Amino acid sequence: MQDGVTDDRDAFFQMASDFPVRTVLYTFGLPVFGLLQLINGLVHDGSLVFIGLFAALLVAFSAVLTQYHVAIYRRKKFAR
Predict the structure, then answer these.
(1) From CA 80, how far away is CA 75, in angstroms rounded?
(2) Which among 35, 31, 61 has a CA at the least distance from the CA of 48?
(3) Which of 24, 55, 61, 75 reaches 20 to 30 Å from 32, CA-CA?
(4) What is the pLDDT of residues 39-56, one digit of tens each?
């Protein structure tokens, strides 16, 4: 089971070296956007419950999207 985790981690770093901009956007862009939304909610007295849920949703979506892109990357490398 541990080999699958290290394979995914290695594939992620290979994908990051091959496609750095795309990897950074999908992996860190959405969580940073969620953090900025939280800061905006604090500054403008927004509903922090809803903004916090939105930020958590963005982090979860970013994790799933990154896993998807790693799987596609591994599949394309395997097909070559």
Answers:
(1) 9
(2) 35
(3) 75
(4) 999 999 989 999 999 999
